[in-house]
Amino acid sequence: MKRKNGRKHGEVFTNRNIVQYILDEVGYSSALDLRNIKILEPASGKGAFAKEIIKRLFQSSVRYEFSFNKALIENVHLIELDLITFSKLAVSVDNLIESLTNEKSNLSSQICFQTDFLNFNFKTKFDCIVGNPPYIRHELISEENKRAYRSKYKTFKYRADLYILFFEQSLNLLKENGILSFICSNRWLNNQYGTGLRELISSKYNLVKLLNIEKSSPFDEDVIAYPCISTISNETSVGTTLFCEDNSKEIDFDNVVFNQINMPKNSSWQNLFLEYDINHSALLGIVEQGFEIGIGVATGADKIFIKSKSEMNGIEKSRLIPLVKSSDLKNNKFNWGENFVINPYENETLCNLDKYPHLKSYLIENKELLSKRHTARKSPDKWFKTIDKIKPEIQFKPKLLLPDLTGNKLLFIDEGNYYPHHNLYYITRSYLKNSFSTK
Ligand SMILES: C[S@@+](CC[C@H](N)C(=O)[O-])C[C@H]1O[C@@H](n2cnc3c(N)ncnc32)[C@H](O)[C@@H]1O
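Above: the input record for the complex with S-adenosylmethionine. Below: its predicted structure, written as tokens.
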């Protein structure tokens, strides 16, 4: 495995088995009369899908005796942004057409468009949309494009990868009962930046099939892409989705066995995987089940930031959070040492010290020491920050506490009273509080 993403334009080319499978998925088969089927490849690359589309259309024209050239010009749209890749696409499209028809061709000029798919205004809608959209991480998208995409695409949320927008624009371009099938990363199925796309699909489209093939190598080079083939149709939801996870290196597409699961009804698709995994008795990883694993706070100056009850020097109560240390968990017993950690943060940024005069004078007394810490030297104006940001909500989450090397035989349960110190690991699960209840 070499790279996580494609190059500048997210280019990673698809192998032929996948192309065949995807075209079959959307029903673009040479056994059918394809003369009126409008098909779009929004990120054509050098033509992995394009060539197969043209071959199938040609075979269909022979079988059903219609004009191949006319059907091609009217119904096939191939888009590619990158100029060099586009010229290769155009050449291979014309070469292929010539070899099929035995006639000189420059039809590429009528079916290949060198443009940004995401900024293109289409005048037509499509029966089928297929492809392998570019993977471009959020931070690699230019600021100018981000601004443009944000105003145009409602799924461009959080740190969305570019492929999310390819889904949205393509879904918008589907005719009624049209169908789309893309191979791309499966990350959007349950991460934060996929929320908008999941919402859109659950509310307006039918998630027909998911084939999760994250362990296989469906591209023409080794990349780490966690691929999944998603097939989505623009028809009233039929309420079920076919799901399969195939972990073979080489997928045998003719023998993939799908299972029927309930079509997700909102943006939370976690159950989709849970339902599948439960049916297959596979134990999900702890994080996949929605748990979070964390480690307590490191301050960089415990003597200053951690105070016992008797040493609080009048510091404002709202700035103090009860802290549990691993030394409180000894000999299988929990004896809280009555320590507190000073929280210098408010709403995720350092607080305005003028609001807390006692805290301010205490910190200023210790400014010299605090400023010498590595973490403060990196950003001197933040001289009173702790190494880890303090997130007050962690105190109130029920959590399992896992002390590091303290010789305990037991795990400890904190029902939501303390903030863990840095030598304590904790496991929590925000949306299923009761799973930790000791009552
Ligand atoms: C992952 S590659 C896939 C190429 C081809 N579909 C295949 O499967 O072999 C994505 C392609 O999208 C192109 N691309 C990137 N951004 C684009 C955009 N905004 N509009 C159209 N094409 C784009 C890239 O240049 C690249 O060739």
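Notes for the reader.
The two ends are 48 Å apart (CA to CA).
Residues 292-436 form one domain.
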